[in-house]
Amino acid sequence: MQRSLKTFSELARRRRLISLAVAGACATFSAAQAQEASSATDSTTNAPSVIVTGIRASMQSTLNMKRNADGIVDGIVADDIGKFPDTNLAESLQRISGVSIDRSNGEGQKVTVRGLGPDFNLVLLNGRQMPTTDLSDLSGRSFDFSNLASEAISQLQVYKTGRADSPTGGIGATINVMTARPLDNPGMHSSVGVKAVKDTSNDHLPDMLKNQSVTPEFSGIYSNTSEDGRFGVGVSASYQKRASGFNRAGLANGYQGPYLGSDTTAGSTLPQPGQPGSQNITNRPGQNDLYSIPQNFGYGVNAIERQRTNGQLVLQFRPVKELTTTLDLTYSENKVQTKRDELSVWFGQTPTSTSTWPSGHVVSPLTYMETYQTPQDISVVGGDYATKTQNKSIGFNALWKASPTLRVEFDAHHSTAESGADSPFGSENNLSNASFSRGNTKIDFTHELPVLSMPAADLVNQPIQAAGSWFHNSWEKATVNQAQAKGNLQLLEASNLSFGVSYTDSTNRSTFSNVQNNTWGGATKPSDYPASIFQANPLGSYFNKLGGHDAPELFGSLYTFNFAQLRALTAQATGNAAGYLPNFASADTDRELKEKTSSGYLSFGTDWDTAIPFHSAIGARIERTKVTSVAQVLPGTAVVWVSQNELPITFAGNSYSTQDASYTNVLPSLNLDFDLRPDMKLRASAGSTIGRPRYDQLQGGLTLGTIGNVFTGGTASVGNPALKPVKSKNLDLSWEWYYDQQSVLSLAGFHKKMDNYAGQTVISQPLYNLHTPVGGAYYNAAIASGCTAADTNCLRNYILSHFDGQPGVQKTGVKSDGNLNGNITGLPTDPLMNFLTTTYANQKSATVKGAEINVQHMFGRSGFGVQANYTYVTSPTKYDNANTNDQFAILGLSNSANLVGIFENKDWSVRVAYNWRGEFLASTVDGGGRAAPVYTDAYGQTDVSIGYTYNKNLSFQVEAINLTDSTQRQHGRTQAATLNVTQAGPRYMVGARYKF
Fold this sequence. Notes:
By secondary structure, the protein is mainly β.
């Protein structure tokens, strides 16, 4: 039975009013409405302000947000963001239970919530859907938080349960980033801050790559209102420069295989017992065991310099107290310059290998060595490139209190995100050089750092010369135009009706071009370069945090070079100036994906006078989305065997294809919260949410990889514009005990049943009628002469020497290692080349369930406190490492935990924060394009911040990120199958802030 306001207990009445004030704004995902509602109600309820200072006050504000919202909501207010030693918002979000982050270069970049990866979490700015671009993850939906600084953000809200008024796209969570509004904090407020940043990862680089040792950060905030409270202006700006680096060792193309121990069909498998070479295998995998062998391995050092600029202007006008209008402009720019050098080798899977193996049914080698009849190449690779990402948004909001019972809001914005090259050398590039002097090559995986040894290597008598190269130019732009109208009508005095409509027009366009030289066997003579251009550096010193870096057998040198100088010399020596620069004039691929969504929602909330008072909110959202995909198709015309293992694809011509699709969703929601007693709540939520497919999953048009492999063929990818969004049916239960103003103990459980999951499938198929010389008549003649399938140098030498001048065969000379140079083109009579083609289909279902425990406690007035949480996530849909077929599994699923120690008094503020994330599946396709798992190992990191308040105006801060210098690792089908290990380093900051 519905109760009237007269029968409400005073506690329930105050609870609901506070809910309308503090969390009702969150329900409509509007910063203007949030702060307007808060200020309007504070005078009646004396509710605490959301924007506060001091750890205890901020903790209390966070609890109010959580306690008074419909559904399960967590968040962080401005003081928390400022107090945490966090580089950006992602690192702030990781402190919330159920939220874990992906790190890039030691910095938080993207978030995973309750086991659902970045693409299934929607990020809003002041309630608005934001575009996002990321050249490292072209056409993904995941928001890159590394573009945003945290200085000007008032609060972060994480909505873990669905509601009718929530925009769609977040199955894991909807994250609302809210910025300050001057009329909600009358008067003049301003401050400036400076920091000096020392990133020790920059010190662990070769001298040629090191950047500035200490870098600056500046920020300033100004807010002011007129005396009559009608006008307000807010300005914030920040500039951050960071010099950093990371060093990585690993198998960029993963492992070959897996092969069955009894397999005798593939030339790259281990000899069977009793066959020649089998005596060199220790503890050979059994006949029914699966084994994998390394394909390539390298050590790389990476120097990164970044400049991040953020700014926002807010203008507010309140002509009458019932109407507030807001115009805001937001800008961010993130510029990143990268220099890298790498030393790597390629394993040919020869039958003359020596290896040792662990026991087990799925294994990779402990040690693996190959012996060669002719010298092989040692690859010395370098890159020098830069990118720039800009985000721009202009928005208008009008909030009108039409009557004491009706509020109406209109909001519109135009926002763009654009990423592209910021270097004359493109968005990414690679100059590959080689010394053809490698004999026996061994890799030892028994150390934390895999140890590569090449005792016969002789780079003095066989100097480094130019080999292949590629210059990429990637560009991506996303645009969102959105208009929203919403309202809230109070019915009687205990119920309210929320309603709204919205229209969103989003576009994502990406282009890509590649200029590649396939002279992997050698394009120049050593005499073309001065002897000083390649500088030897002690390789082991760049991995000194990893066991094995000081192994005596480790190859001792990593070579660096000046990229611009070597590029110019190579272009001059080859007479091919245009071949060593990116193509800015045209694109090899050009894709555009448009989504137009119309939606409406209705939600009814009321309080009930029962034995246990409770509040209910029931609603539904309906959406109609139209998808249009336009894609440029670049057909392949030929396959050319140019060097030992490489089969580049020749392209010619292009055309465009257009495909349309549409879908409609009705998404119901029910949220209940029960007042078990004044300090205790029980919540229950049920509803449906959707997560839209990635743009590259939707975009039509077949894309071929630019280079194939003798053993595995080619790679390709194609999207599916008709993909439906993943639809999740969600159940949530939460118990919350607010036993003190700044303390809480909560338990939560969740269950998500997802359908229409776009499973990634790899299909082996011929494309564009492309024929490969591998397996053709010339190839078979070479096999008949005594060459083996694994000895590609023997095969090429035979074909080039016996069939030069015949159709498809052209010998161009002799390489420095004595092998012949030339091109062998696939003929119409040769076999069709198979391409490992990645595509997507709505054919998967999955269930994710888990639990969260969260405690926040302040020890009386001692100033000490603790925050701790743990999230357990599981799914029956797991990757089977013993299954060699294509598999579907949920990416990013992992347990996570946080432990934060706190101390605060009038002068000092200290936090020590430990964040941990368990092992998770990062990909079901490895670097070589094969269907294979990539797991990220468990990772823990400790951060510290110390603040000292000198007086009411001046304060100082000292911060440390990754204080314990943790390293990261990824592995394959078994824990021992190292794919890569990464070492970075701690980061230290010293700063001061002055308030006017």
